[in-house]
Design goal:
Elements (H helix, E strand, L loop, with lengths): L2 H19 L6 H8 L3 H7 L3 H24 L5 H14 L1 H17 L4 H27 L9 H20 L8 H15 L2
Organism: Tumebacillus avium
Protein name: HTH tetR-type domain-containing protein
InterPro entries: Homeodomain-like_sf (IPR009057), HTH-type_TetR-like_transc_reg (IPR050109), HTH_TetR (IPR001647), Tet_transcr_reg_TetR-rel_C_sf (IPR036271), Tscrpt_reg_QacR_C (IPR013571)
């Protein structure tokens, strides 16, 4: 196993352990065992468990961004790209719940670490830029009306999906299938369309 593969194996094993057991309950030895390496190897790649948590969150955010870009890329129309984004969110909902829990632990643990916070904010901006770029693309194609700030429209779409996820997590509503997620986007698009 190459060094890069070991690092990735550690990140993936740690993500699973942190997401299911929580940061404090997870032992580095368990992560090493899950990754198929010796415990000391974890410390060759990561200074300590706190640094590993931060790297896991950033790794997952990079992976999330990479996969969501792949999910929307094949579609020609901006509306279909937004629907693909919604389908992706619903499909990944169980993993997203675990990720949000992990991200929350990360925010608390590193609230005073400016470097980690700046990296997290940059990654959140990347996802928002993906949505604003799709909306700008839709304006250029004449699918959506002109608007001064596409960020507001991106926030409406993102907010609708996140509110939906929160409502499911709290039991306010039943989980939607992919068609239900697309319906949320269609409501937002009707507000954007000419």
């Amino acid at each position: 196993m190459e060094i890069v593969d070991k690092r990735q194996a550690i990140l993936e094993a740690a993500a699973k352990r942190f997401s299911t057991s929580g940061f404090h309950e997870t032992k580095v030895g368990e992560i090493a065992q899950d990754a198929g390496i010796a415990k000391g190897t974890v410390y060759l790649h990561f200074k300590d468990k706190e640094t590993l948590l931060a790297e896991v969150v950033h790794y997952q955010m990079r992976e999330y961004y990479r996969v969501v870009v792949e999910a929307v890329k094949p579609y020609e129309s901006a509306a279909e790209k937004l629907r693909a984004y919604a389908r992706f969110q619903v499909e990944r909902f169980p993993q997203m719940v675990k990720f949000h829990k992990l991200n929350f632990e990360h925010m608390i643990k590193f609230k005073d670490n400016k470097s980690f916070e700046q990296q997290r904010i940059k990654q959140l901006h990347d996802v928002m830029h993906l949505l604003t770029d799709v909306i700008k693309y839709g304006i250029e194609r004449g699918e959506f009306r002109e608007m001064e700030d596409t960020t507001d429209a991106a926030l409406v779409i993102s907010g609708a999906i996140h509110s939906y996820m929160q409502a499911v997590m709290t039991g306010m509503i039943e989980a939607k299938d992919q068609a239900g997620a697309e319906a949320l986007v269609d409501m937002a698009i009707r507000g954007l369309a000419r």
